[in-house]
Design a protein that fits this description.
about 475 residues, mainly beta, 7-stranded mixed beta sheet, 5 helices, elongated
């Protein structure tokens, strides 16, 4: 269903179209007949082996120009989504372009095995009005398993005018069915950018401050669109666990405060649960895993401390209350702990405490910033004293630190993907500050933004309808 989201303060937030599924309901999947032979499924499930698969252009049934274009987009985006998770070696489409496109029962097996394929993902597309049905079959092309089908599915309610979402949904289903993996193809990124501040109408920004707006995009950087439009400083967006709310820091009314936009209820006014004033400054919100609380940084006690508040603004509590500067809170996946940075020992270090503020412990004694806790039992953070910074992780399983980036430029402000396998971060390796993504396993750095300066990425969940 396509929903138009906006919030109530005039000039503060631009309406944004967010696709959450087919317009007639949730994205549907229909299983097709498939083989369950052990010799096929073991190859797919072996974590030490990445099968090589080819994804040719889709066959078109009763097609027209729009359907043909949409089907090609689905195939191209699906290729990228499957390649992104690196569970398969996806053969470049330029290498498969000369192989004739054939239905599943007429594949030119020898031509596929000649280029090293283990499997071919055969797709067909048909149309009924505005709906596009995509049918996929994963066919083994080697040895005794040739012709067997370990995966088959039909997606009947794709939209001809929104093929990217169709491809993302298919990729997530494909990874779940063949690898048991929760993919991120339908997830969203939020970040801050100065790219369009000179062209935004509205009230002027504070003297000497650089205006920045919050932007949203698909996980791969496609469909970047401005969310706030107020010509003020808007930073540090944070998705709620269900993807329906977006908290962020804004200087909209003067001093920085925490704002919450309700994406699921168009026209609803922005909420300010931290109750900022001229004397009380609040920033860097972080949602609890159950979505009922926000941890944030506040000066309301006269110093920079980590506070927590219920989403409705009740239950304010100071968790740190020390003479040092405590900042950048992030919740553990179970909601029982909060990690944060503190310079109480003279250097900004990584600390962890219970969610009620007790049991504070030093975790990383080196200089760190902007921690984010992953469901895979690690915390990603900015490491170093500058001018160069790196993205590193503290692994609770080994009690060790591992650097993910490669020493090029300044790398900071990590945001972990919902499945824990990737980290979005800010880097100036290409000149201006841009959002990039690196695999937790190492390597695979991909540039996400190209316009303006961009920072404070946050990786959201699959939006709920």
């Amino acid at each position: 269903m396509r929903r138009i989201f906006s919030v109530g303060i005039v000039g503060a937030v631009l309406a944004v179209a967010v696709t959450t599924g087919g317009r007639d309901g949730a994205f549907r999947v229909e299983a097709l007949g498939q083989d369950s032979q052990t010799d096929v499924t073991i190859t797919l499930s072996n974590p030490a082996y990445h099968p090589k698969i080819g994804i040719p252009d889709f066959l078109i049934t009763g097609g027209d120009t729009d359907l043909t274009a949409a089907a090609k987009t689905v195939a191209d985006v699906l290729w990228n989504d499957i390649d992104f998770e690196r569970e398969y070696y996806v053969i470049p489409r330029a290498e498969t372009a000369s192989i004739p496109v054939r239905p599943a029962d007429a594949l030119p097996y020898q031509q596929w095995t000649d280029i090293g394929a283990d499997f071919v993902l055969v797709g067909t597309a048909s149309r009924s009005g505005g709906d596009m049905a995509i049918e996929l079959r994963l066919i083994s092309v080697r040895g005794e398993t040739q012709g067997r089908q370990p995966f088959g599915a039909r997606y009947p309610n794709c939209k001809v005018d929104n093929p990217r979402y169709c491809a993302h949904a298919i990729a997530d289903d494909f990874h779940k069915q063949t690898k048991g993996l929760d993919g991120v193809a339908r997830t969203k990124l939020a970040f801050s950018s100065d790219r369009d501040t000179g062209r935004v109408s509205g009230r002027p920004i504070q003297a000497g401050a650089q205006a920045k707006e919050i932007y949203l995009s698909d996980y791969d950087g496609a469909n970047q669109r401005r969310f706030t439009v107020n010509r003020h400083l808007n930073i540090a967006p944070a998705w709620s666990p269900d993807g329906r709310l977006l908290a962020y820091t804004s200087w909209l009314t003067g001093p920085p405060d925490i704002y919450i936009a309700n994406l699921a209820q168009p026209g609803r006014a922005l909420e300010r649960p931290a109750h900022g004033t001229t004397a009380i400054q609040n920033w860097l919100p972080a949602w609890s895993p159950d979505g009922t609380k926000l941890a944030f940084v506040s000066t309301r006690a006269g110093n920079s401390d980590v506070w927590v508040v219920n989403r409705d603004g009740s239950g304010l509590q100071n968790l740190t209350n020390t003479p040092g500067i405590d900042s950048a809170p992030t919740w553990s996946p179970d909601g029982g702990k909060i990690a944060f940075t503190s310079d109480r020992a003279g250097t900004k270090q990584l600390w962890v405490m219970s969610a009620n503020g007790t049991g504070k412990q030093l975790l990383v004694s080196q200089q760190v910033d902007r921690p984010t806790w992953s469901r895979l039992n690690f915390i990603a953070f900015t490491l170093g004293t500058g001018p160069g910074y790196e993205i590193a992780i503290y692994d609770f399983n080994t009690s060790s630190i591992r650097v993910l980036t490669d020493g090029r430029g300044k790398n900071e402000s990590p945001a972990v993907a919902p499945n824990g396998r990737h980290v979005a971060f800010v880097t100036n390796r290409w000149g201006k500050e841009q959002i990039a993504i690196v695999d937790v396993a190492g390597g695979g750095i991909r540039q996400i933004t190209t316009a303006g300066n961009n920072d404070y990425p946050n990786w959201g969940p699959i939006p709920q309808p």
